[in-house]
Design brief:
Length: 278
C-alpha cells in the first residue's frame, strides 16, 4: 500500500503449531489479496541450541522451510518463498519485512514452546517495531477469510490510518466493519470521518457505542458474541516517533481469550506529525 510494497505477506515461523496456524491464515489472506507468502525463520541462539540438541546443522532449517513451502504450493496454489536468516527476532523480522517490501506480517504467538518464545512482552516488541501492519494469530484456526471486523475507536487521533486499512481489508474480503466506539464526548467527529469514507468506498458498516469501564473486555465480548473474524487496533507513537506504544486496552485485546486475530497498525509518520504540531 506504500511505495516499495511488493504484495507480500511475511510469516515468521519456529515450526510450532501456532506459527503454522499463522501461516495458513496468511495463505488464505494471500488468496484474497493475490499476494505472495514469504516464510521466515530467524536463526538465533534458541535455534542453534535446539539444533545442537537434535544433532542437526543449520542447513536443516532451509530443508524444513522448503518442505513446508512445497506442501503449501501443492495444496493451496499460492506462491510461497522461504528465508532463513541469522539474527534476533526483535530486529530481524522488521528488517526482512522492509528488505523484501512486505505489505503485511502475520505473527503467531504462543507460550514457552519450540525454539523461540513469541509470547507476552516478546510479541509486543515485534508488533510495535514492525514497519507494516501485524496480524497477531493464536492457536484457533480462522481459515475462511474475514467477513466481520471489529474496529474499536477510543480516541480522535489518527482515524484516517485505521480507516484506510479497514477499507482495504473489507473490500478485498467482502467484510462488514463493526465500529465499536467508546461512549465518551469528542469521538463523534472521528467516527464521522470513518463512516464518510466507508460510504464513499461502498464498505458495509454499523456503529455500536460501548459503555462500562473495561473497554477491552467490552470489545472482546462484542467480537465474540457477533462471531467476528478480526479486531483491528492502532498503536500510538511517542513524540519523537522513535517507537510505538500499546495501551492496556490494546494488549488485552491482542491476547484475547477467544483467540480472535488482531490486526495492529503502526501509523505512518506524516499523519502523526500533524497531531504533534497541534
Amino acid at each position: 500500500m506504500e511505495a516499495k510494497m511488493n504484495n507480500i505477506i511475511l510469516v515468521p515461523t519456529d515450526f510450532t503449531e501456532v506459527t503454522e496456524n499463522a501461516m495458513y491464515q496468511a495463505v488464505e489472506a494471500a488468496k484474497h489479496l493475490k499476494y505472495k507468502v514469504v516464510l521466515l525463520h530467524v536463526i538465533d541462539k534458541n535455534t542453534k541450541a535446539q539444533l545442537k540438541k537434535d544433532y542437526e546443522g543449520l542447513e536443516s532449517i532451509g530443508i524444513k522451510l522448503d518442505a513446508i513451502a512445497d506442501e503449501v504450493k501443492s495444496a493451496h496454489k499460492v506462491e510461497i518463498e522461504t528465508i532463513a536468516k541469522e539474527g534476533d527476532i526483535f530486529t530481524t523480522i522488521g528488517e526482512v519485512a522492509t528488505d523484501i517490501g512486505a505489505n503485511l506480517l502475520y505473527l503467531g504467538t504462543h507460550g514457552k514452546v519450540g525454539m523461540q518464545k513469541l509470547t507476552g512482552s516478546f510479541a509486543i516488541k515485534v508488533v510495535t517495531s514492525s514497519p507494516v501492519p501485524v496480524v497477531v494469530v493464536q492457536k484457533k484456526p480462522v481459515n475462511q477469510g474475514y467477513k466481520k471486523i471489529v474496529l474499536p475507536i477510543t480516541s480522535d487521533a489518527g482515524p484516517w490510518e485505521k480507516t484506510r486499512w479497514a477499507t482495504f481489508i473489507a473490500k478485498n474480503f467482502g467484510a462488514e466493519i463493526d465500529i465499536f466506539q467508546l461512549d465518551i464526548p469528542g469521538l463523534e467527529e472521528a467516527t464521522g470521518i470513518i463512516t464518510k469514507h466507508f460510504d464513499k468506498e461502498g464498505v458495509k458498516y454499523k456503529i455500536t457505542k460501548a459503555g462500562g469501564k473495561n473497554f477491552s473486555k467490552n470489545v472482546i465480548d462484542y467480537a465474540t458474541s457477533s462471531v467476528s473474524d478480526m479486531i483491528m487496533i492502532m498503536t500510538n507513537p511517542d513524540k519523537n516517533f522513535s517507537t510505538f506504544l500499546l495501551g492496556s486496552y490494546d494488549e488485552e485485546m491482542i491476547f484475547n481469550t477467544p483467540q480472535i486475530p488482531v490486526m495492529c497498525i503502526n501509523p505512518r509518520k506524516y499523519n502523526w506529525e500533524k497531531i504533534f504540531k497541534l
